[in-house]
Amino acid sequence: MNSPQHPTTGSARVTLPWQEVSLDVLREKYAKGAERGLDGPDAVRAVRSRVARALAAVEDDPGAHEADFLRALEAGFIPGGRINAAAGTGIREVTLINCFVQPVGDSVSETVDGKPGIYIALREAAETMRRGGGVGYDFSAIRPRGARVHGTASAASGPISYMHVFDQSCATVESAGARRGAQMGVLRADHPDILEFVGAKRQAGRLNNFNISVGVPDALMRAVEADGEFDLVHKAEPGPAQIAAGARQREDGVWVYATIRARELWSAIMRSTYEAAEPGVLFLDRINGENNLHYCETIEATNPCGEIPIPDHGCCCLGSMDLTRFVTDPFTPDAAFEHARFAETVAIAVRMLDNVLTTTVWPLPEQAREAEAKRRIGLGFTGLGDALILMGLRYDTTAARAEAAEIARTMRDAAYRASVALAREKGAFPLFDAEPYLASGMASRLPDDIRAEIRAHGMRNSHLLSIAPTGTISLAFADNASNGIEPAYSWFYTRKKREADGSMREYRVEDHAWRLWRAKGGDPAALPPAFVNALEISARDHMLMQAAIQPMIDAAISKTVNVPEDYPFEDFETLYLEAWHAGLKGITTYRPNSVLGSVLSVEAAEAPQDLDQSEPDRRIRISDAPQVALAALRWPHRPKLTDGSPSWTYMVEAPERRFAVFVGHVENGSRHPFEVWVNGEQTPRGLAALAKNLSMDMRAQDPAWLALKLESLAKTPGAPFTMPMPPDGRPVPVQGAVSAFARVVEYRCRALGVFDGDDDATPLVDAMFSRKEPKSGVDGTLSWTVDILNPTTGDDFAMFVKECVLPDGTKRPFSVWLSGAYPLEFNGLTRSLSLDMRVIDPAWIGKKLRGLKDLPEAQGDFFARVPGSEKQAVQPSTIAYVARLLIHRYEMLGVLDAAGFPRAGSARLWTDAPAPGSAPAQIAGRTCPECGHPTLIRRDGCDFCTACGHVGACG
């Protein structure tokens, strides 16, 4: 790992060794086949060579252009993630385009006003995501809730109801490259359902696969400033009740559903954004007024990150310039930006992105036609924050904004000149019309000589510029230079990463400018004044940097304006008004707060109960609680073993029951079991769920915990019988099927040496607030009880949950059991869950319950009330319903959220204090897919986990 990674920064060249994170991300995201086996410099060179060759193949002289393209890539041009991952791989089903916008019309299955019906749009979106593209939609065409549906003489359910259908489709369809699709949902601020839309994500578990933004017209902003009224309108006819309530039709044929005070609507949008980080705001009139193609298209939505406002079937073909590669003499008085070399590289990058449009596979023919008609591309930059540091400019100063604007101007002019040159060589885009094109807000600001060239020769590309978030490409190709337009978030942080065998590894991720400062002999304890990170910059200065650059960008800019938790709400509202006045096309903010990590909806009061609950709250009190288990999970999820894994099988023969037990293990220095499952037509109900639960225990780094579990299960009563025990068939009495199962698993684990180690560490056992079940005195204790009836299987029983009070006052379940008619093997699962409940970290029981809440049973599904709701729905199985009810109880106690994840402030498996100068303390957010903690925030336009350093989707 000592090979050079970033050898061309400044005139006095400094070679930096490769960071582990860069090689990891390169191999995981972008390198293919043999490229993965190379070291850092060779691997990145191989990826660049593959991309250069693929994009040059459509040229008349591929060889000459391939050399130019490779030089541009090595000079600092980084194509978008899809291009690096797929160009030249021969995978013909995968698109090179990151994102699209797809139309959605006001019909279920027909095309209306040129927009496909909802389920046609759903199919097209699924096909797009399957091939690797994210999708944005404007749902404003869909008629409001309650509007009249003439064809069926019914009332419409509204756009938000259909958004849930798109959300579930996105959760199901896996995009190319094994990632879930990203989506942006937009609704106009004047849509009658706008208030429902604004709060649509305030309830946990809803629209998780969407970013949402409100399309705000200037009319609303003017009405807000004037404290005027604002009409909520739609062309669809209201229902009778809405007409009776005052809905009226205007002279232009549009229906006014309601007239409200503009400031009340604006305050609702702002309050949701302030408290829950969504919705974002898109200034639609600014977007369309600036649009180069204002004469032939209307933009209603953006891609999932918001940096590309695009029309129906439009795409974003992205790439970024690493600005740090063009700074000479960093950290000296002579530091400067090489504008000429930068412009030369920009010109080549434009040609490369134009070739992407010719090279790529298109998910839909409509997307191909749209791209060919306009040839839209989006070249931007990354590393702005670090480049300014190298030049001694503090991000939040007037001088830094002026330099950033000048860099953006150089990029704009070079890109437009390059597109004119391409038009002379290959032809202008088909919808080019010189005079209206040059009359657009953006093109009117171009230098006169470029405007003259455009008038004479046309443009190859309708749009050229966009600044996108660059999370993983910055890590892989730019030595973790600051992301996109953003300043650095922190100078270094500890990254916790799972290896292929499931083990945990930690390493430090360092900011490029900080590394270069140290490499040039700088004292990391005495950083120059230019070293200022994102959280040290005021919200207004974040916004002003975006405003300084936007006039040079013909699309838009993805930027996160970080505001502190104690930022006054009045100032927050003012920030958005300033952004509108400053000419921004949209604005996204992130304010960390405790709400983001918890259920965001306000639950209605509980319905009256038949039980008299006036008695004092009698719960067992725990006088002392242990510390949290640290990194107790070796493999929270089943490791993906591409070459398979060995397993051991044993047939259990009980009276009238015969089933096989399988124990799988990995061989990584030593053999370690990581999963157990059961199979057979006569397998007792409930054993499959128990095996799933026990598999996670196997993947813990605590043999004593596994031994405790197996010992408890071996004592589970049932229908006793005698079974032959391995290895010699010696007959052994067991108490039932669960007991037999546990004895077999314990035998195999012992044979694999699980309990032979010298390590005395028992993180899970030590993290139990009570190893034995707490017992009440003669006065008794309260328990939570719920009745469960599954008519399909005949299960009819009560579930009891006993609870205690921890030293901090938190109420926690510590035991669950059943009484009534049910398979006795269910007792094994409740015994196992009771032990899980007594681990102090609620992430543990949450993980166990999430693994069971969707567990199906053949011919065992049934209809029952949704926990926490008056609605009824199909439940996958009795066990799944038990898990869902337990999650609901934890939610009622404020321990887990409705999805089964720990609420903000709960104890966590990882509580490592950050090293001095590293990333800030953990910040409440969404659940991280890597570590499971509610600490996933939006940083620089991308998902970032403040607990483990995971960098996720951008958008």
UniProtKB/TrEMBL annotation:
Keywords: Cobalamin, Cobalt, Disulfide bond, DNA synthesis, Nucleotide-binding, Oxidoreductase
Similarity remark: Belongs to the ribonucleoside diphosphate reductase class-2 family.
Protein name: Vitamin B12-dependent ribonucleotide reductase
Organism: Amaricoccus macauensis
Enzyme Commission no: 1.17.4.1
Domain Ribonucleotide reductase large subunit C-terminal residues, every copy: 98-590
Reactions that this protein is recorded to catalyse: a 2'-deoxyribonucleoside 5'-diphosphate + [thioredoxin]-disulfide + H2O = a ribonucleoside 5'-diphosphate + [thioredoxin]-dithiol
NCBIfam families, sorted: NrdJ_Z
Leading EC class: oxidoreductase
GO molecular function: cobalamin binding; nucleotide binding; ribonucleoside-diphosphate reductase activity, thioredoxin disulfide as acceptor
The keyword Acetylation appears for this protein: no
GO biological process, one term: DNA biosynthetic process
InterPro entries: RdRp_reductase_class-2, RNR_lg_C, RNR_NrdJ/NrdZ
Purpose: Catalyzes the reduction of ribonucleotides to deoxyribonucleotides. May function to provide a pool of deoxyribonucleotide precursors for DNA repair during oxygen limitation and/or for immediate growth after restoration of oxygen.
Cofactors, names only: adenosylcob(III)alamin
